[in-house]
Every structure is written in structure tokens, then in C-alpha cells.
Write a structure and sequence with these properties.
Number of strands: 11
CATH class: Alpha Beta
Distance between the termini: 40 Å
Strand content: 15-25%
CATH superfamily: PPM-type phosphatase domain
Number of helices: 8
Shape: globular
Order of helices and strands: HEEEHHEEEEHHEEEHHHE
Number of domains: 1
Length: 321
């Protein structure tokens, strides 16, 4: 019996040491200093393709929620035939890995591990020559509940909107040079329209090389940082930490959803969040589609794509003991 008792004592001591390590790292509160636990509930969500295939994706676990906006491929070449598009394959692969990730890890470590697993799948499933210029990539935004604060993370042109309790104004988090580069493309579209070139297919043929040149700047100094299979953008995550007492509800959205603010100019950040809460995500997406159907030639609202994938996720912060 003595060897068994010794083994039990050793196991108890290992568990005690592990708990002390977790406490010292901030992953576990010590007895007598228990803090309210934070978690998220998804109150509403919606994701709709702009055309046939949806290259957006969203997901959640108890302490995190995220959105992904895959970049539409410009080439007819395909690497990943198991999905409708390579961008769709990528965002869904990342989503699966995040749903099964170890959320006790720091954010950068967790994301890097997830992308390493996605990279392994990519190497196994991709077909043909793996030209890096063809590798899929995506914009990404994440909210995460930690012990005593909420973390916002962004890489690309997704947005996170929230209303601060102290003064009631809606705040926006997330920015990228992608927005500036896309604006330059839209300025070229406006120039073409003024010159009489208004056919969408002709305009696309002219602007496609400009878009490709912009994409060649991804994950390079002087360019912009984005989520891709190699994980090169992870050293440049935008991050913000907030006191959970400041936040009630949070909206994560892709640029196709945010068009109501920066392209169609029919909403402000305040009214976009209010409509998402009061009217719902699906209703808000319908209002986007109504504008796009009425302006399918992109003349009233010049833009790169007539209709873009649109995704919104409304999250409620929960506090418990």
C-alpha cells in the first residue's frame, strides 16, 4: 500500500504546483481572490454571400467570438478543390481550429498554433503548384474574455463596435491600410465612370491589375498586415484591452456589413450598432442588399464589388462568479 500512497501524495503535489503556476501566470485566481468570470453569449448573427459563394465565416466559444473575411481570389487557378473557393476553405479551416483551440494560451500563441495546423492541412489538400501568390488570406477580428478584462484583436479591415457605458457613445476598433488601398481603387473607378466607362465587367478588367498590385503588398513592411497561412501578420496584431464594466454588447462585422457606414453613408457607427441590436442582423443585411440591387451598376455608390459578403455577430458580455 505504501507505494500507492506515495504515488497519491506525489500526484497531489504535482497538482498543487500546477495550480500555483496557473495562478502566477494569471490563468487562475487564488482562493479568496476569486474574480467574476467573463463569458459571451451570441445574441444575434447573420452571414450572407454577396453572390454565389460566401467567403465570410464566424464562430465562437464561451470566452471568445471571431469573424473572418476571406479575400476573393483574382485568379481562375484553384489550389483547394474541396471547397467552393480557396478563400472559403481557408476561413472555415481557421474557424475549425479556433473552435478546438486551447483558450488558456496567450492570443498570439493560440493563433500561431491554429495557423500551423491549417498550414498542415493546406499542404496535404492543396493541388498543383503551390504558388504563394495564390495562397488564400483573410481579414480577422476577435473578442476574448480574460480574467479581468476583455481583449479586442484585429488584423485587416473588419470592425468591432461597442457602446461605452460611461458616456454612451459608440466606439469603433480596427483599422488597416487595406482601406486606403481600396479607396484608391474606388477613385480609379470614379475616374472611369466620369470618362464614360461604366460597364461593370470592363471596369473590373481595368482595376484587377491594381487590386493584384495591392495584394502583393500584404504582410510586407510598408504594405498591410493580414491573416494568412504562413502567419506572417501575427506579429502585427492590433490589440486593445477594456474593462468589462465598460461594455454591454459588442458587434463584430466584416467590411461588407460596414458598407452602410463607409460606402452607402446611410448609417453612422451609432445607428449601425443600434439597428443591429433593435432590428436585427438579418434586417440590417437586407437593407444592404436593397441598396445594392437598386445600384447594381455601382454608379450611385462606386465600389469594387457590386455586392459583397456581409457578416455581423452581436455578442453580450456575461459576468458570473
Amino acid at each position: 500500500m505504501l507505494p500507492q500512497i506515495d504515488q497519491l501524495v506525489a500526484a497531489i503535489e504535482r497538482n498543487r504546483i500546477r495550480k500555483l503556476a496557473l495562478i502566477s501566470s494569471g490563468r487562475l485566481s487564488s482562493p479568496g481572490t476569486m474574480k467574476p468570470t467573463l463569458s459571451f453569449d451570441v445574441e444575434d448573427s447573420g452571414s450572407e454571400p454577396g453572390t454565389v459563394h460566401n467567403d465570410d465565416c464566424w464562430g465562437s466559444v464561451a470566452t471568445a467570438a471571431w469573424i473572418l473575411d476571406g479575400a476573393t481570389g483574382l485568379s481562375k487557378k484553384r489550389l483547394l478543390p474541396s471547397a467552393s473557393t480557396d478563400a472559403q476553405w481557408f476561413v472555415r479551416a481557421v474557424d475549425i481550429e479556433l473552435r478546438n483551440a486551447d483558450w488558456s494560451e496567450p492570443t498570439e500563441t493560440l493563433l500561431r498554433s491554429a495557423l500551423q495546423r491549417v498550414n498542415g492541412r493546406f499542404r496535404n489538400e492543396a493541388r498543383g503548384t503551390l504558388e504563394q501568390a495564390l495562397w488564400p488570406f483573410a481579414s480577422f477580428a476577435l473578442i476574448r474574455a480574460l480574467n479581468d478584462h476583455i481583449e479586442f484583436v484585429n488584423l485587416g479591415d473588419c470592425r468591432i463596435l461597442w457602446k461605452r457605458r460611461d458616456f454612451g457613445g459608440v466606439k469603433s476598433f480596427g483599422s488597416s491600410r487595406v482601406t486606403e488601398l481600396d479607396s484608391n481603387v474606388v477613385n480609379e473607378i470614379k475616374r472611369l465612370h466620369r470618362g464614360g466607362t461604366t460597364n461593370n465587367e470592363v471596369v473590373w478588367e481595368i482595376i484587377s491589375p491594381i487590386i493584384q498590385a495591392n495584394r502583393d503588398l500584404k504582410n510586407r513592411p510598408g504594405g498591410y498586415w493580414i491573416l494568412d497561412i504562413a502567419g506572417d501578420g501575427l506579429d502585427h496584431l492590433q490589440k486593445m484591452e477594456l474593462d468589462p464594466s465598460d461594455i454591454d454588447k459588442v458587434l463584430l462585422c466584416t467590411d461588407g456589413y460596414y458598407r452602410l457606414v463607409d460606402t452607402y453613408l446611410t448609417r453612422t457607427v451609432d445607428s449601425l450598432l443600434e439597428d443591429s441590436m433593435d432590428l436585427g442582423i438579418a434586417s440590417t443585411i437586407r437593407s444592404i442588399r436593397e441598396i445594392e440591387r437598386a445600384d447594381d451598376r455601382c454608379l450611385s455608390f462606386p465600389r469594387i464589388k457590386s455586392s459583397d459578403d456581409a457578416t455581423g455577430v452581436l455578442v453580450v458580455v456575461r459576468r458570473g462568479q
